[in-house]
Hints:
binds benzylamine
Amino acid sequence: MNFIDRFFEKKARNVAQTNGRRGFMKGVGAALVGVSSIPLLPVARAVDAPVLAQEVGDPSSCDYWRYCAVDGFLCDCCGGSYNTCPPGTEMSPITWIGTCRNPVDGRNYVISYNDCCGKTQCGTCLCQRDEGDRPLYRSDKSNDVNWCLGATSSVYHCSTAIVVGVAFEK
Ligand code: ABN
């Protein structure tokens, strides 16, 4: 009997030492930290791209709604499209960002004007609407910048207009 008592007492103490309140709190703390860091993990956010209302307008015309803040040759006239680069060119990883109103749903969308790089300038469909543009001395707010400076080739060819999200209404 004595042996059985001692055996179970020892087991109970072991369990109490390893799984005590502190152990429990430690586990809860670790779980909280783990769960709270999930939104910080790198995830592909492309799936968050907004569902756009039906399109109106001609992407090879400077009046097209996505071009409200553009400054450059429209890639749609240069062998690419409003959101893809022509073959043989590379899209700049750094860009100018504008906010344009889609006339179909009346909502404002954030547009990224990525330049296409690696061929001499396209030369057709120059479009300079410049909404929100500031003089070059405000370099953080100027669209008069060759974004190809951030690409493999710094030679500018044309500009795209890619919707990256819906703008928050003020
Ligand atoms: N982002 C269009 C551009 C390219 C070169 C020089 C000025 C503007």
